[in-house]
Write a structure and sequence with these properties.
Distance between the termini: 66 Å
CATH class of the largest domain: Alpha Beta
Mean pLDDT: 91
CATH topology of the largest domain: D-Maltodextrin-Binding Protein, domain 2
CATH superfamily of the largest domain: Periplasmic binding protein-like II
Number of helices: 11
Shape: globular
Radius of gyration: 21 Å
Largest sheet: 5 strands, mixed
Number of domains: 2
CATH architecture of the largest domain: 3-Layer(aba) Sandwich
Number of strands: 15
Strand content: 15-25%
Low-confidence stretches: 5-22
Helix content: 40-55%
Length: about 280
């Protein structure tokens, strides 16, 4: 009897230690008719709530116009997209708890994060810079020793500053609006984030000309859409949507809507970035 109990206990421990299989996201979406994405409320032009209280942005359009049709094809029925707020500290827990199926905002694809989640094809490429008040002596990452630098909790920018530039006084905030508000109020000397996001904040600031975005990229930030690890069928559908968008040119139409000369934030795509994106689909 003692030996049987010991074997039963060993089996229970082994089962508890075995990682749970990834939930079949497509089955979940098929049964509910809903694709739930985690996204941002204050990161223009990628994802934000506009003056009409509508959730809009480049990342959201990519899901609605490119990803959703492929997911609908995979589940065999029309679906709707629901949105939940996610921030750098909450987005992976939201995925792990099945509260959302896909993170579609401004999440950098890194080797460390790939240990926990899977990423789609890269849909945007940028790098970290600084926003400062016009006339600031901070012009690059070489000028931040002893300076109060705001960043978002859980961001790759904060991690890089902690590890490579400990001489800076890093101040972490829960989200982008809070960090930018600290800069507006003079609580910090600079706010670091991905360059494109800083340009978005500058464009929407009460007095845009009061602020400069400075410095060369001190990091590489390829954005991908994150999903639960090991769910190959769902990843294939998400990637197919982005791939079709790049091949057909619809991706570039959506880019033009948000980043073209008449877009929310004019930010021309460089030939190098376009080549980087197209290389993913063998072009």
């Amino acid at each position: 009897m003692t030996r049987i109990l010991a074997l039963a206990l060993a089996l229970a421990v082994a089962l508890a230690a075995t990682p749970a299989l990834a939930q079949d996201t497509l089955e979940k979406i098929r049964s509910t008719g809903v694709l739930t994405i985690g996204t941002r409320t204050g990161s223009p032009p990628f994802a934000y709530v506009n003056k009409d209280n509508q959730w809009v942005g480049f990342s959201i359009d990519l899901v609605e116009m490119l990803v959703r049709p492929e997911v609908e094809k995979a589940v065999g029925k029309p679906i709707k997209v629901e949105k939940k707020e996610s921030t750098p500290p909450t987005r992976i827990p939201l995925l792990s708890s099945n509260s959302v199926d896909l993170i579609a905002g401004t999440m950098t694809d890194t080797p460390q994060r790939r240990e926990t989640v899977d990423f789609s094809l890269t849909f945007f490429y940028t790098g970290a810079q600084f926003m400062v008040k016009k006339g600031s002596p901070i012009r690059s990452v070489n000028d931040i020793a002893g300076k109060r630098i705001a960043s978002q909790q859980g961001s790759t920018n904060a991690k890089i500053l902690r590890e490579k530039y400990p001489q800076a006084q890093l101040r972490e905030f829960p989200d982008q609006p809070a960090a930018f508000q600290a800069l507006l109020q003079g609580q910090v000397d600079a706010y670091t984030n991905d360059g494109i996001q800083l340009y978005g904040l500058k464009a929407k600031a009460p007095k845009p000309d009061d602020w400069d975005v400075v410095g060369d990229f001190y990091s590489e930030e390829p954005y991908g859409m994150a999903m639960r690890k090991g769910d190959a069928k769902f990843k294939a559908a998400v990637d197919a949507g982005l791939k079709n968008g790049l091949q057909s040119g619809r991706y570039f139409d959506i880019y033009e809507k948000w980043f073209g000369p008449k877009g929310e934030l004019p930010y021309p795509m460089s030939p190098q970035v376009k080549a980087y994106l197209l290389k993913q689909i063998g072009k």
